[in-house]
Amino acid sequence: MRKGPLPILFVFVVVDLLGFSLILPLLPYYAKAFSASPLIIGLLGTSNALAQVLAAPLIGRFSDRFGRRPLLLLGTFAGFACFLMLGLAGSLTMIFASRIINGLLGGNQALAQAYITDVTDEKDRARNLGVLGAAFGVGFIIGPALGGFLSSFGNSVPAFAAAGLSLVNFLWIAVALPESLTAERRRAAAGGRQPPITARAMVAAMRRPRVGPLLTTIFVYSLAFGVFTATFALYALRQLGLSAQFTGYILAYVGVILVLVQALAVGPLTARFSEARIIVMALPIVGFTLLAWGFVPNVPLLLVVFAPMSAAAGILGTVINSALTKSVSRDEIGGTLGISTSLQSLTQVISPVLGGFLLGQLGAWSLGLLGALMMAGVTWFAWKQVLPSRNAPASSGWEAAGTEPTRTPE
Q1: Of the residues 170, 193, 216, which one is the last residue of a structural domain?
Q2: Is the dihedral of CA 26, 251, 139, 317 positive or negative?
Q3: Are residues 35 and 182 in the same domain?
Q4: Which CATH number covers residue 13?
Q5: Residues 181, 200: one domain?
Q6: Which domain holds residue 339?
Q7: What count of Cα atoms within 13 Å lies in the side-chain half-sphere of residue 251?
């Protein structure tokens, strides 16, 4: 891989996630200032994810056809405008509009992953995606804490700070990052006759011999882990009596482990084992630790359980996407990563409702048991489908949609 783009993208991703996560502690209080009900606050939290469900595959597909850089510039400028709108919001309508537009025009995470895939050979891809994943983690560790601090100066201050960071990122990409796709590859993607992003095309992608098992694994794993992340703060309050500050420290601990594993462990692991085998080994670790989480009685044991959980989650998040990029032709990478992002965004809509219901009706044990059962099922599925499919040809598989994309020579 060329050495230049990875440091540039690392800085971009840290700043992008820092701006995004700055406003996370702000949103419920901001909405409450406009007399929003708990239901409206919940809908505000899912509106961005719902927009990403619809838009992420399109953003990825457009990046295959027009290049990664223009879509990154669009996403960062949209972030600047939306955060500015949020800071100036005088009504709930403006708040919702800022979150929905940001979701529709964002997609920077998948675009950054697609860019790294463009400029990386298959041998080093997982390692470099791990470094990029570490950048996501750094942004998420720092952002909420900084946003909480800035909110002490006013609810709109974190939003304006996020707008400033987005503007910095827009200028950074405009000046420092070249386009990763050649004109030939963009023309190949534009002339490939790929089907439009529709429900039928999404189903066709899920039926592909190598892509489908990986997308299914991503969805089930993201839903199981999403129930944990969506309910952890409420769980910590109800089960362990932890303050918001102490809960933040625990989440930072999880984030640090994720960053270290993605930055330091993914490369050596993928050099020794196939990505499919790593996926099958990591899935049950997440399952066992989710089960243990549902029954831990105190914070010290919680920290012990969270160490292997965080490590396995950090590995999975990187290795599955790396395997996914190797399962399609080069002119489909952006669209395929967009579908993956869309599926993960869908789990962010489902998991808070599902987790909140189980925690309220049955208790914390049900969250751990559900996560363990889901992970047991997807581990069996991956053993049967992902491991064998690593030797299957990376056929385009658009037959179900009635078209065949043009391939670019490797």
Answers
A1: 193
A2: negative
A3: yes
A4: 1.20.1250.20
A5: no
A6: 194-392
A7: 25
What type of residue sits at position 292? Answer: A
Token pair, residue 17, equals 């996630």
Same domain flag for 210 and 175: no
Q: pTM of the predicted model, to two decimals?
A: 0.80
CA 24 to chain centre: 15
DSSP codes, 182-242: -HHHHHHHHTS-PPPSSHHHHHHHHTSTTHHHHHHHHHHHHHHHHHHHHHHHHHHHHHH--
Q: Is there a contact between 63 and 80 (Cβ–Cβ < 8 Å)?
A: no
**Of 154, 173, 193, which one is at a domain's C-terminal end?**
193
* Listed residue (266, 239, 236, 269) closest to 253, CA to CA: 236
Residue 234 near residue 351, CB atoms below 8 Å = no
| Residue 198, amino acid | T
Which pLDDT score, from 0 to 100, does residue 2 have?
45
- In whole angstroms, give the CA distance from residue 32 to residue 35: 5
pLDDT tens-digit readout, 157-171: 888 999 999 999 999
For tokens 């909140």, name the residue. Answer: 356
Q: Is the alpha carbon torsion for 390, 392, 395, 399 positive or negative?
A: negative
Listed residue (228, 267, 272, 271) closest to 251, CA to CA? 228
For residues 236 and 356, state if they share a domain. yes
**What was the pLDDT predicted at 28?**
72
Amino acid identity, position 337: L
**219 belongs to a structural domain:** yes
Q: For 104-123, write each residue's pLDDT tens digit.
A: 887 788 888 888 888 888 88
Biggest alpha carbon distance in the chain?
59
In a domain, 346, yes or no: yes
